[in-house]
Amino acid sequence: MIIFNVLLLSLTILLPSISVATPTSHVKAPEALAKQIKIMIIGEGQIQQSFRLPARVDLDQQHVARIGATVTGRIIQTEALLGQEVTKGEQLALLNSNELAEAQSAYLKTASQTQLKQIIVDRAQRLQDNGVIATANLQERSAALEEAQIDLRTATDHLRALGMSNNDLSELSKHKIIHSMLPITASIQGTIVERNVTVGQVIQPADALFTIADLSHVWIVAELPEQQSRWAHKGDVAEVNISALPDAQLSGTLNYVADMINPNTRTLTVRMNLPNPLRNLKPNMLANLTIRKQGGQELIIPDSAVIRLNNTEHVFKALASNDFELIPVVLGPRHDNVRPIISGLKNGDKVVIEGGFHLNNELQSKKTN
Q1: Residues 77 and 205 grouped into a single domain
Q2: Which of 301, 312, 291 shows the shortest CA–CA distance to 337?
Q3: What CATH number does residue 361 fall under?
Q4: Are residues 231 and 208 in the same domain?
Q5: Max CA-CA distance within the chain?
Q6: Is position 79 within any domain?
Q7: Cβ contact 242:290 at 8 Å
Q8: Sheet containing 73-78: which strands, arranged edge to edge?
Q9: Region of 83 on the Ramachandran plot (φ > 0 left; ψ -120 to 50 alpha; else beta)
């Protein structure tokens, strides 16, 4: 019984001091400070999420042509220079090829044999009609003609594969003159961006002599890490920043997202097309590609309202005139200087978005006093 009275007496002594204590999270702003404070009512907004990637300017591979020869030979003349604008069909170099001459000779011989066998078949047909020769003799001569015609078609296709046009074949059949010179021509209109040929050089069909590109359009190519592969979809809005062109405002949409991860780099290739009418976007320039996405409606707060104390994020909530409370909040990642509110605030709450730093100093000063 004595012990109970002692405890009761102790509680009676302590209770008055607890009841009159002022909450340490509350602060009243002095008049001078109140003029510097800006308050915002919490509401819903749409967060635009973004992801930034290192990128590069590349040739538009759909408008690039690598020009070579169709036969083995020696270059005897070059006319095109690096950086030169060329049109489709324009001659870039001239090739002397024994292989082409031999193919033309085989064509003429086969054509001559075909004509001779056609004459023999026509004569045999007349003889067979008059009963002079048997049907078997006519069939034998017809079979020989068919073989010659097959050889002629093969020789014709060979010359076409070597770069001769139908008009060239007609001239060859008409004049029977063999030309061992073969022009190497541009297959598209554009700019010569690579030149790997000199006079006297012996070349093979696999050699790339010129590369022509249409530079009026370029690609912006980036590699997205495998862990962020969910970020990119065809049609996503994207922006490009190029350090060499700080004033350029470039934007568009992703037109290609690879379907497979590169096993060597563990990345996903993404790409967008950009017009390049001024030709100021140079292939191999370094760039940054920012992919942007529109999120759903959610409660948001400006990042300027957030005060970090003891590894916890807080904001000042406005209670009454010049009266504020520092409360902890849980926020999502920052996007364009705003943060989504996960917990701690509700729609319609008023928070300090400017002057929170000074309010916190006032609060800390109050605690020390």
Answers
A1: yes
A2: 301
A3: 2.40.420.20
A4: no
A5: 154
A6: yes
A7: no
A8: 181-185, 91-96, 73-78, 202-203
A9: left
Whole-number pLDDT of residue 15: 30
What are the tens digits of pLDDT across the range 26-57? 888 888 888 888 989 988 877 767 788 999 99
Output the pLDDT for position 321.
83
Q: Are residues 90 and 102 in the same domain?
A: no
* CATH number of the domain enclosing 141: 1.10.287
pTM, full prediction: 0.63
Whether 187 maps to a domain, the answer reads yes
Is residue 58 within 8 Å of residue 220, measured between CB atoms? Answer: yes
Same domain (yes/no): 238, 278? yes
243 CB-contact burial (10 Å; exposed 0-12 / middle 13-18 / buried 19+): exposed
**Do the domain assignments include residue 192?**
yes
Domain boundary at 272, 296, 320, which? Answer: 296
Cα–Cα distance measured from residue 162 to residue 296, given in angstroms and rounded to the nearest whole number: 61
Q: Is residue 144 in some structural domain?
A: yes
State how far the Cα of 304 lies from the Cα of 250, in Å rounded to an integer. 29
277 plus 315 within the same structural domain: no
Q: How many separate domains does the chain show?
A: 4
Helices (H), the chain: 2-19, 31-34, 98-129, 135-161, 166-175, 356-368
Residue 5 has pLDDT above 70, yes or no: no
| Residue 230 Cα distances to 20, 200, 227, 236, 328, angstroms | 56, 54, 8, 12, 32
**Integer angstrom CA distances of residue 311 from 26, 27, 251, 306, 329:** 20, 21, 38, 12, 12
Alpha carbon distance 287, 54 (integer Å): 6
268-327 pLDDT, tens digit per residue, is 999 999 999 999 999 999 999 998 876 667 788 898 899 998 889 999 999 988 889 999
**Per-residue model confidence (pLDDT) at position 238:** 92
Angle CA 280–284–286, to nearest 5: 85
State the angle between helix axes of 166-175 and 98-129 in degrees (0 to 180), rounded to the nearest 10.
Answer: 70
Which of these three, 162, 194, 213, is where a domain ends? Answer: 213
Range of the domain at 193: 72-97+180-213
Q: What is the pLDDT of residue 231?
A: 82
- Are both 281 and 307 inside the same structural domain? no
CA 104, 108, 114, 117 dihedral sign is negative
CB 14 within 8 A of CB 322: no
